[in-house]
Design brief:
- There is one protein chain.
- The chain is an alpha/beta fold.
- Helix 11 links the parallel strand 8 and strand 9.
Length: 650
C-alpha cells in the first residue's frame, strides 16, 4: 500500500497532467477558431476532430521528453523556458512534416500550417504561463507566512527599512528579486545605483529604476530617506568596496554587502543573509586565477599529505586539495579535536573522496615513518609549525624544534620515500628576522633548499604575509577588543603589514607545487602593506562606531621579536617572474651542504639542552641577516633598537 506522501505526489502529478492536456486541447480549439474567424466550416470540423487527439498527444509527449513536465511548478523560472521551446519546436516540425509529406488523400491528418503555428504559440505559452502563475501564488503565500512569523504572529507589520542597491547588473537583479520575494527581510528597495550612465532612469526589476551613480549617493540617501545601502556587485574588487565605503562613511549611511554573489549567479545559493562589509572585503585583493589544469595534473589521482591539517592554513589547504580529486588525502594533525572537525567537514562536502585522518606529531619519527611507509604520499604540503611571534620568543627551543628539526624530519622522509614534491609553508618574517619564529622559518628554508640537492623530490617553499582570520592573527583579536568596548591595543602607529586571505594563501601553495622545479621560494604579489592603525580604525568604523571616541586605540610598544615593516625578500635573493602573473620566485643562494648539516647538529644539541641563549646566538651567526636579542635581555629600548637596525638594512 502506498504511503500518504506517495499518494499525494501521484494525485498532484495526475492533476498537473490533466491541466496540461486541457490547456493543449483549448489551445488547438482556439487556433482553429482564430484561423476561420470563429466559424469553422463543416468540412473542416471533421478534420479538426480527427487531428485534436493526435496533436494533443504529440505535444504532451514533447513536453514530457524535453523535461518540461518534470520540473516543480512553484520553482519555474526563465531557465525552464528552453525546455518548453525545445518541446514546441519538436512538435511543430513533426506536424509540418506530416502536412508536407502526407498525400491529399490523407487530408484529415494534415494540420493547416496557420493552425499549427497559432496552436504552438498558444499551447506551449499557456503550459509555461500556468506554471508561472503557480510560482507567483506560492511566493505570495510564502511571503505572507514569513511576514507573519517575522511579526511574531501579532499581525502588526514592522516598518520596512529603505535601501538602495549598488550595482544594477545580473547580481543586482537577482538580489532585488529575492528581497522582493522575502517577507521577513524588512527591506524596501527604493532603487538602484550604478556608475554605468547608459542604465540611468531604466528599470531593472518591476518598478525599481537606476536613480544615479555612486557619487550621487549623498543626494539619493537624503531624498529617499535611505536606511542603508547594499552592495550587489558580483566579484566587487577591494578598490570598489573601499570607494563605496568611504562615500557612505562621509554621508553617513550604513553600507552592507551580500556575500558570495558568484554563487548566487551560478544558482547555488539564495540571498538569505545580508551582512555588514567586513575587513576581509577591504583587504582582499583580486582573486588569484589558478592554472587549474596543471594543478589537476599534479594532484588528481595522487596521494597528498597535508601536515598541520587542523590549523587555519592547513585546513584550507585540505579543502583546496580536495577540489582536485586526489586518490587519497592524508590529514596529519596532533590536535585531536581540530582533526575531527576538518575530517567531518571534508567528508560531508564529498562523500566519495578518500580521506585519511591521522593523529600524529610531525616530530615523532617512528610514527611519521610508519605513515610514509604505509601510504607513500606523492605530494607533501608541510603546514605544521609554531607561528605566534611573541609566544615563541619565550619558547625559542620549541620553535626551533618544531619549525626546523621537525621540518627536516618530514622533508627527509618525503625524499627517502620518493615523493614528487614537498612544499614548505614559510613566512615574510623569515626576511631579516628579528624574531625566533622568523629565524626558525628562515633556517627551515635553508634545510629544504639543501635537501633539494640530495633527493629527486622537488623541494620548494612559499612565503606568506599575514593571513586574514587565521588563528592568533591580529584581526580576530581586534574584533574581540571592539566587542568588549575597547580599547584596541596596537604596538606602534608606524607598523605596517602585508595581508592575504586564507583561500588565497592555500591556492598559492598549490600553484607553487606545480611551478616549482626545486630550490625556489615563492612569493605572491601582495600589493601595498597596510598600516595596523588604519586597520584598527577601519574595523571600528565597520562596527558602526567612531575611532578614538567610541573605541580608543592605545599604543603599547613593540613586543619581543616584532619589527615595524615586513619584507618578502632581501638583497641576496634574485626575484624572477613565473608563468603566473601574481607569483614570483626568490632564487636563494645555495647553502653549503656541510654548513647546513653542522648547523642542524648544533641546533639538535642546543634544543636537547634547552639552551635559549645559545640558540639565539647560533641563529644570529648562522643567518647573516638575522637580528635576534638575547633571551634574557629584551627590554623595550633594546628591542626597538634591534628592529630599527633591521629596518635600516632594507
Amino acid at each position: 500500500m502506498l504511503e500518504l506522501p506517495a499518494k499525494r505526489h501521484l494525485l498532484a502529478s495526475g492533476i498537473q497532467a490533466l491541466l496540461d492536456i486541457s490547456l493543449l486541447q483549448a489551445a488547438f480549439v482556439a487556433a482553429y477558431l482564430l484561423r476561420f474567424d470563429f466559424t469553422i466550416p463543416p468540412e473542416e470540423t471533421r478534420n479538426f476532430l480527427a487531428q485534436l487527439p493526435l496533436v494533443v498527444l504529440l505535444q504532451f509527449v514533447a513536453l514530457t521528453v524535453t523535461g518540461s513536465r518534470s520540473s516543480i511548478w512553484r520553482y519555474t523560472d526563465l531557465a525552464h523556458v528552453r525546455s518548453f521551446l525545445n518541446a514546441a519546436v519538436a512538435s511543430v516540425l513533426i506536424l509540418v512534416a506530416l502536412r508536407l509529406g502526407l498525400p491529399k488523400s490523407l487530408q484529415v491528418w494534415r494540420v493547416p500550417l496557420s493552425v499549427n503555428f497559432i496552436d504552438v504559440v498558444l499551447a506551449f505559452g499557456a503550459a509555461y504561463a500556468i506554471r508561472v502563475v503557480r510560482r507567483a501564488e506560492y511566493e505570495y503565500k510564502q511571503k505572507r507566512v514569513q511576514l507573519k512569523q517575522h511579526n511574531n504572529g501579532n499581525g502588526n507589520a514592522r516598518k520596512k527599512r529603505s535601501v538602495l542597491l549598488i550595482g544594477a547588473g545580473r547580481a543586482g537583479l537577482l538580489a532585488a528579486k529575492e528581497i522582493e520575494a522575502r517577507g521577513d527581510l524588512d527591506l524596501e528597495i527604493k532603487g538602484f545605483v550604478d556608475d554605468d550612465r547608459a542604465k540611468f532612469g531604466r528599470s531593472v526589476v518591476q518598478r525599481h529604476r537606476v536613480l544615479g551613480a555612486t557619487n550621487d549617493l549623498p543626494r539619493l540617501v537624503h531624498t529617499h530617506g535611505i536606511n542603508h545601502v547594499i552592495i550587489t556587485i558580483a566579484h566587487a574588487s577591494r578598490h570598489e568596496i573601499q570607494r563605496i565605503v568611504r562615500i557612505c562613511e562621509s554621508i553617513p549611511v550604513k553600507v552592507r554587502i551580500i556575500p558570495e554573489l558568484y554563487e548566487i549567479i551560478e544558482g547555488r545559493v539564495e540571498i538569505s543573509r545580508i551582512r555588514d562589509v567586513e575587513i576581509e572585503d577591504l583587504l582582499g585583493r583580486e582573486p588569484v586565477q589558478l592554472d587549474t589544469e596543471s594543478i589537476m595534473k599534479e594532484l588528481a589521482g595522487k596521494t597528498v599529505m597535508v601536515t598541520g591539517a587542523g590549523g587555519s592554513i592547513g585546513s584550507e589547504l585540505a579543502r583546496q586539495v580536495q577540489r582536485f580529486a586526489p586518490a587519497r588525502l592524508l590529514l596529519v594533525e596532533r590536535a585531536e579535536f581540530a582533526l575531527f572537525d576538518i575530517d567531518l567537514e571534508l567528508r560531508a562536502a564529498n562523500r566519495g573522496s578518500s580521506i585519511v585522518p591521522l593523529v600524529a606529531d610531525v616530530g615523532d619519527e617512528s610514527r611519521m615513518r610508519a605513515i610514509f611507509d604505509l601510504y607513500r604520499p606523492q605530494v607533501v604540503i608541510h603546514a605544521a609549525a609554531h607561528k605566534h611571534v611573541p609566544l615563541m620568543e619565550s619558547n625559542a627551543t620549541e620553535a626551533v624544534h618544531n619549525n626546523v628539526l621537525n621540518t627536516r624530519l618530514v622533508a627527509e622522509l618525503a625524499g627517502e620515500f620518493k615523493a614528487e614534491a614537498f612544499v614548505l609553508i614559510s613566512t615574510d618574517k623569515a626576511v631579516r628576522p628579528t624574531s625566533i619564529m622568523g629565524a626558525s622559518k628562515r633556517a627551515a628554508e635553508l634545510v629544504v633548499q639543501d635537501l633539494n640537492q640530495t633527493y629527486n623530490t622537488r623541494f620548494v617553499a612559499v612565503r606568506f604575509g599575514n593571513v586574514i582570520g587565521s588563528a592568533g592573527s591580529v584581526i580576530p583579536i581586534f574584533r574581540e577588543q571592539i566587542r568588549n568596548g575597547g580599547p584596541i591595543t596596537i604596538t606602534d602607529k608606524r607598523m605596517k603589514r602585508y595581508f592575504m586571505t586564507i583561500p588565497e594563501a592555500a591556492q598559492l601553495v598549490l600553484q607553487a607545487s606545480v611551478l616549482g622545479r626545486g630550490g625556489e621560494v615563492f612569493i605572491l604579489h601582495m600589493g601595498e602593506p597596510v598600516r595596523i592603525i588604519d586597520l584598527a580604525e577601519t574595523l571600528i568604523t565597520l562596527s558602526g562606531l567612531k575611532p578614538h571616541e567610541d573605541v580608543q586605540v592605545v599604543e603599547t610598544g613593540m613586543r619581543p621579536g616584532e619589527k615595524l615593516y615586513e619584507e618578502l625578500n632581501f638583497e641576496s635573493e634574485q626575484t624572477a617572474p613565473t608563468l603566473h602573473p601574481k607569483i614570483f620566485i626568490n632564487l636563494l643562494d645555495t647553502p653549503e651542504p656541510e654548513v647546513v648539516k653542522t648547523a642542524l647538529r648544533v641546533l639538535e644539541r642546543l634544543v636537547s639542552e634547552r639552551n635559549e641563549d645559545e640558540v639565539r646566538r647560533f641563529l644570529n651567526d648562522l643567518l647573516a641577516e638575522a637580528v635576534l636579542a638575547p633571551a634574557n635581555n629584551i627590554n623595550g629600548r633594546e628591542r626597538k633598537r634591534l628592529v630599527l637596525v633591521a629596518g635600516q638594512r632594507t
